[in-house]
């Protein structure tokens, strides 16, 4: 549906973003200034205690300095309510008292149909709830009692019962005037292949309504009462309302609980979720009968930065955990991760809570491991690394795992942890932190190429930018400054390169602070951005723009050449990312050859020493002059040194 010009602007003008956000957060009144519309609160998009979520009510934007979530009132409604763009517009328009423009007839028809299907699903919920209370549902009630599911829990999750007949629900809905086509489209019945009347999808099953984040029933899950039934659990077929791979059981209540500080726990089934919620773990969800999908993983990260995946402790549960890890690795971002909690063998969360209580479950959750530990365990458990070839195979496998991580910063931290674990494995009884002081690089003690202590730098040199970081980090530091300098000189580029600026890691804290200020006002007019930066980061801004290499840079000097600045900024960002990627690869390669290098030095110099001793003994026996042999040996050793035999060719 297309909206008339000016409609969204009018909507944003009428709606206060502070009032929209205020329904989901608790303002920190110590930091907030209500009169100026400058509001602060803990972020609703990630779990935190400090108030790093900022709302500028006058400009109509929000920004989180922790997870970098940003947007306006529409995007806030879309993210927190998990609705589409037009649904968010409708919600805000209703709040503002604005009439929505006339819809395209086909679009209106689709929306009306979804509403009709949702109403049919609600009628089915009521039917199943009623059937649980009848004589036909006696066995189901006994089963729920044996599972210690209280009447309050049954009511809370609206658990019902589908009778064993073939057309119980069908006839009930038809009797209420629901069309055959709607019943079939909702997935509540199936068409007969034998020319007979359609039959119910769910028969003789305990029923669990599945609701979307807005609370609408979109599907059902059914647990068979007959032990001989080949399918213990079945879900509704996919419909216009229900996409199994994009849905989580208990999504809405879990999101609300996580927003209040609860842990987000991913369990395997309906009964596990219900048991967790009843035990006080309100942030429990479950995928719907399949392994976690990429879409479900993104939904989880919308709710919480670090969900805990609690899976059964058997072999199948461990395989499921590793599938989740494999899915998550390429999608990892800074601050977005998973922890894996393996249940005791033979127990699921429902069993554990009933057998040992809430404290036992909390202990399992507290012991949840980061994903890197599962990667390490998969590569090493039950294997022997008693030969160089086997160790090399382990290194190769781990490198392949790490290369799947797209975020270079996260990949680097994973590499550091793998290196620590490797040191513990191959040096029994000695932790990597006990490895002793770092050794200085080996240098010859005399002769050609002798190492000399570097002279002390002059005061002017110590104060220069080139002394701010060692090695390759100097160039990266200069490039960071260039990126920010171009953005300051051409504020219009901040919005264009917003996503790249968000992702690029800045090592200098001053650069990072300035970048945050830029992103906060990215959508303002260029002149307003310049003024805002002067007010909020005046000292750091002045220091940056007075750097000699920025003053002479063409994209900074030529304030009227936006295209030149755009091209230069894109190139600098690409070079910064490429340089860090190359450095990461070099560090990995150096780790691989470190052991081989040391062994190469020892072997070659050992062979040279052996040759020397043999030569000396031979000449002493012959009573010969040793001068020529000494010279030859000295030349041989010097040749080894000059050739740098310890380096991998």
Key terms for this structure?
single chain; 649 residues; alpha+beta; DNA Primase, Chain A; DNA primase DNAg catalytic core, N-terminal domain; Dna Topoisomerase Vi A Subunit, Chain: A, domain 2; 6 domains; five-stranded mixed beta sheet; 29 helices; 15 strands; globular; EC 2.7.7.101; DNA replication; DNA-directed RNA polymerase activity
Percentage of residues in DSSP E strands: 5-15%
| Unreliable sequence segments | 430-470, 594-599, 618-630
Level-2 CATH architecture of the largest domain = Alpha-Beta Complex
Query: What is the residue-averaged pLDDT?
Result: 80
N-C termini distance = 63 Å
* CATH class label of the largest domain: Alpha Beta
**Superfamily at the CATH H level of the largest domain?**
DNA primase, catalytic core, N-terminal domain
As a whole number of angstroms, the C-alpha radius of gyration is 33 Å
Number of strands: 15
How would a crystallographer describe the biggest sheet? 5 strands, mixed
Written account of the structure:
The structure is a single chain. This protein is 53% helix and 8% strand. The protein has 6 domains: 90 residues, DNA Primase, Chain A (Alpha-Beta Complex); 131 residues, Alpha-Beta Complex (DNA primase DNAg catalytic core, N-terminal domain), CATH 3.90.980; 126 residues, Dna Topoisomerase Vi A Subunit, Chain: A, domain 2 (3-Layer(aba) Sandwich), CATH 3.40.1360; 46 residues, no CATH class; 114 residues, no CATH class; 64 residues. It is built from 29 helices and 15 strands. This is DNA primase. Belongs to the DnaG primase family. RNA polymerase that catalyzes the synthesis of short RNA molecules used as primers for DNA polymerase during DNA replication. Pfam families: DnaB_bind, DNAG_N, Toprim_4, Zn_ribbon_DnaG.
């Amino acid at each position: 549906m297309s909206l008339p010009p000016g409609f969204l602007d009018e909507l944003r003008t009428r709606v206060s973003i502070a009032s929209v956000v205020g329904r989901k957060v608790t303002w920190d009144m110590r930091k907030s200034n209500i009169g100026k519309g400058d509001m602060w609160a803990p972020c609703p998009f990630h779990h935190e205690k400090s108030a790093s979520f900022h709302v500028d009510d006058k400009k109509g934007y929000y920004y989180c300095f922790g997870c970098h979530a940003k947007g306006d009132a529409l995007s806030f409604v879309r993210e927190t309510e998990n609705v589409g763009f037009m649904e968010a517009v409708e919600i805000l328009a209703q709040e503002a008292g604005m009439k929505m423009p006339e819809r395209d007839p086909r679009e209106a028809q689709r929306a009306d149909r979804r509403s009709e299907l949702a109403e049919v699903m609600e009628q089915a919920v009521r039917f199943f709830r009623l059937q649980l209370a009848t004589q036909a549902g006696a066995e189901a009630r006994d089963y729920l009692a044996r599972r210690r599911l209280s009447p309050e829990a049954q009511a809370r999750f609206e658990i019902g019962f589908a009778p064993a007949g073939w057309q119980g629900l069908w006839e009930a809905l038809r009797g209420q005037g629901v069309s055959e086509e709607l019943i079939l489209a909702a997935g509540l019945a199936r068409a007969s292949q034998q020319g007979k009347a359609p039959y119910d999808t769910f028969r003789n099953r305990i029923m669990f309504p599945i609701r979307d984040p807005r609370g609408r029933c979109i599907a059902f899950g059914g647990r068979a009462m007959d032990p001989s039934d080949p399918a213990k659990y079945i879900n509704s077929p996919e419909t216009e309302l229900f996409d199994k791979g994009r849905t989580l059981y208990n999504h809405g209540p879990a999101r609300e609980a996580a927003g209040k500080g609860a842990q987000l726990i991913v369990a395997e089934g309906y009964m596990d979720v219900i048991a967790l919620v009843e035990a006080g773990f309100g942030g429990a969800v479950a995928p719907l009968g399949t392994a976690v999908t990429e879409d479900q993983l993104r939904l989880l990260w919308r709710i919480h930065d670090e969900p805990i995946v609690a899976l059964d402790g058997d072999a199948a549960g461990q395989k499921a955990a590793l599938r989740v890890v494999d899915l998550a690795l390429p999608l990892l971002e800074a601050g977005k991760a998973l922890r894996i909690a393996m249940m005791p063998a033979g127990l699921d969360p429902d069993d554990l809570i009933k057998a040992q209580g809430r404290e036992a479950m909390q202990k399992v959750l507290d012991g949840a491991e980061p994903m890197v530990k599962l990667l390490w365990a998969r590569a090493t458990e039950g294997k022997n690394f008693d030969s160089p070839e086997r160790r090399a195979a382990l290194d190769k496998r781990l490198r392949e795992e790490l290369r799947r991580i797209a975020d270079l910063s996260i990949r680097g931290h994973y590499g550091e942890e793998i290196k620590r674990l490797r040191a513990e494995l191959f040096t029994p009884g000695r932790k990597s932190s006990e490895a002793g002081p770092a050794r200085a690089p080996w240098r010859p003690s005399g002769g050609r190429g002798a190492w000399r202590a570097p002279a002390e730098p002059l005061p002017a040199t110590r104060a220069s930018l080139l002394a701010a970081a060692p090695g390759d980090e100097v160039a990266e530091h200069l490039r960071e400054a260039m990126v920010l300098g171009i953005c300051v000189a051409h504020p219009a580029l901040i919005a264009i390169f917003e996503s790249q600026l968000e992702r690029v890691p800045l090592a200098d804290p001053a650069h990072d602070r300035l970048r945050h200020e830029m992103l906060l006002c990215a959508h303002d007019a260029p002149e307003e951005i310049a003024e805002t930066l002067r007010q909020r980061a005046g000292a750091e801004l002045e220091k940056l723009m007075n750097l000699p290499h920025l003053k002479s840079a063409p994209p900074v000097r030529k304030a009227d050449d936006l295209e030149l600045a755009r091209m230069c900024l894109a190139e600098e960002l690409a070079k910064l990312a490429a340089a860090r990627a190359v450095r990461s690869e070099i560090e990995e390669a150096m780790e691989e050859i470190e052991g081989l290098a040391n062994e190469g030095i020892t072997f070659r110099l050992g062979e040279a020493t052996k040759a020397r001793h043999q030569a000396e003994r031979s000449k002493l026996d012959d009573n010969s002059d040793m001068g020529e042999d000494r010279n030859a040996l000295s030349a041989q050793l010097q040749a080894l040194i000059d050739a740098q035999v310890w380096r991998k060719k």
